[in-house]
TrEMBL record:
The lineage of its organism: Eukaryota, Fungi, Dikarya, Basidiomycota, Agaricomycotina. This is FAD-binding domain-containing protein. InterPro entries: FAD-bd_PCMH (IPR016166), FAD-bd_PCMH-like_sf (IPR036318), FAD-bd_PCMH_sub2 (IPR016169), FAD-linked_Oxidoreductase (IPR050416), Oxid_FAD_bind_N (IPR006094). It holds the Pfam family FAD_binding_4. Belongs to the oxygen-dependent FAD-linked oxidoreductase family. One of its GO terms (molecular function) is FAD binding. It comes from the Eukaryota. Keywords: FAD, Flavoprotein, Oxidoreductase, Signal.
Amino acid sequence: MKIYILIQILLSATLSFAQDQNATRACFSIESLLGPIKVQSSGPQFEAGATGAWNLANAQLRPACIVFPLETSDVQVAMKAIFQSNARYAVQAGGHSAMEGWNNLQGGVLILFSQMNNISESYNQETDTISVEPGLTRGNKCNGAFCSVETGLLLGGGISFLSPAHGFGADNIKSLDVVLVDGTLVVATVDDEYADLFRALKGGGNRYGIYPNSSVDAVINATAHYVQTVEGPSAVLLVSLVNAIVSEEITPIAQVELFYNVTDTNLTTLPSSIFGELLSIPASTSNITRLSYLEVLNTIPAGNNSGSGETFGAEVFSSAEDIQMYHDARAHWDNFTQAVAGTGAYFFTSLISTPIPSSQIEAGRARGGNAIDAPLGGYVALNLGEQLTLGVAQPPAEADEAKLLFLNQLHRSPGFPFFMNECDKRQNVYETYGEKKKLLTCY
């Protein structure tokens, strides 16, 4: 799979007059080479691009100019000018990131791939590949499933409903067209001269039921048992615990999504050996039916509204951990929710569990592996997410301190990686990667 990306150098977020001048110089240079349609500092398209990030915190940042490349050469021109001007820059594809400053910036150059959203129309059977451009989002191909999610999903690792059988999304990348910071275009693959870069970029940057609060403990127990025992590639589990906040009142909800990929068209029930404990929990709403993969994607509501701020945090438990760790995490999460409910800044908090079985790691290794380099044994990736109320971009200072305390109270399993795309900006993601030392040598 070909993906156009940029190597993004993380520079200081502190603005200065010199930096603003550098950005102005870069914008003028790029516009003189690419023209005012591809490079804009005002107007409707600029405003839509500057405010289009999924996270309101990023949508409020205002770049000096936005580059709308239509082809690879446009990216090369922009990067060379940015490099020569020593200007700060950011890159945005679909814009689905909760990390502040990750896909937009104040006063610098924003490269926005909204116009490069094509996908090859034909599947190449000989190479088992398709080619996609960086601005392609799920929204281009489906109606739901967080439609602003895009190719950054793959570069950050990528967890999907196919992962247990085929590994992380990054494991399925065959080649990357990479524009380096000096404007040079290279193709990175597993066995060419940019193999170290290719490796680093691979991860380096429903069945449906809603359960009442009385069954949350049972859901946690069943989730832990699933992580400890299920290893096959056909089963997928996603468990979302949500604390909805309305007028300081907290309403807990548990949403469990079970998937089982089979070719037996006569199968009408889910295997009890895998899902029996979860299915035995009384559900206020449930639905078991046969779905196509596209229908599975569309069972998840669209999440591309950018009218409020989002914050994330990550944790990980290995399959060998005691169930009590799951209950401790839930207790700390409940305490955090209670601490911030009175601020009026939160719509909900969530604690989402995604099991990563050994079959997923093995499938990835069979495709050459990735920079995450997760160990075998199985684990669960925890996403600690919060959505702020409409119009609120940043949590209050006391709520942010409560979030940091919450993260520090959790106990992670050493040797297992965080999921980059769902981390807090204060968490050291690369420190948890198996190939941290190799990443440090790739620059």
